[in-house]
Amino acid sequence: AQRVTQPEKLLSVFKGAPVELKCNYSYSGSPELFWYVQYSRQRLQLLLRHISRESIKGFTADLNKGETSFHLKKPFAQEEDSAMYYCALSPRSGGYNKLIFGAGTRLAVHP
Amino acid sequence: GAVVSQHPSRVICKSGTSVKIECRSLDFQATTMFWYRQFPKQSLMLMATSNEGSKATYEQGVEKDKFLINHASLTLSTLTVTSAHPEDSSFYICSAIRDGGTGELFFGEGSRLTVL
Fold it and tell me: What pLDDT does A92 receive?
């Protein structure tokens, strides 16, 4: 079965602390993995995708096929990072379509 | 940018009535759109894939006669919740893929339906 698991509903850290939002997935093929972010009162937007191997707003995520994980990391959290973060999987190779979302993790960064 | 707009953002209706939610791509054409449903403090659940000019593809467990999807133009998809019941109360979110783009999904702001 295709599934995305984000074990933490809430992650609370202080400004400047490292952040790691966990994501594990279950999929038999070669998935595309994404992180989406939703800031307060805003729509969902793409943060980063594993195939681009880029860093956005200081965040990085590495796909670990052995552990079936795609954890999102940032070395020094900022208050403006406070938001809801969703890990998502696309079962269609080469595309962004038909996303399967995790339950989401709320990141709260305190001053 | 690529903007997707949903209307209405909030709607309250009586049980048994039908409600239509619109999803528009404002500055691009979208042959393919998706409809999601989100319960409070839960994840987005894909309901169906909306394809312009053809029938929507529904996910398993989603009643196609209950949730009617029409994608009559390249910039508009509509979701009609028919004979709404209180358990249909939810947050409905659409997303669209820009034709000729990279395949990235652009999301609407969502529509909150409350059925009394």
Answer: 66
